[in-house]
Give the backbone structure.
Amino acid sequence: MRRITVTVGLALVAAVVFASARAAAREPEAKLENKLIGTWKLVSAKYGNREAMLPAGWTRLKHVTTTHFMWANYDEEGKVSMALGGPYTKDGNKYEELPEYGVGNVLQLLKGKPQPFDWKVEGNKWYHNGKLSSGTTIEEVWERVQNK
């Protein structure tokens, strides 16, 4: 009986390792197909057709993985004032975020509501435009953050 238990246990471990290896092998392929994967810095924005600027010393970064997005505003000391994240879907030039977690008033405003956008990447710039579920139109330009 012990031999069967050990054999079944080893088979389960082998199956998990094999599945993980296959998923890892597909990850680079997914990155090639999805130009949004990476870290982006907001370089310009219009909300409701009005130019928006972060306060001096503040930064907004957006991280995109194969399945999720997350952005955060932080000051020069690294203190986060606003953040939002969750899963997203992408189909052609359509991109839709579904916020699930965050910090600040933006969470209550957008949580659980699909946020549809049009997108395109040209060079190292991501053009992100749409209308939030709150009715506010947004036009954002993000720049890919390069490794130092």
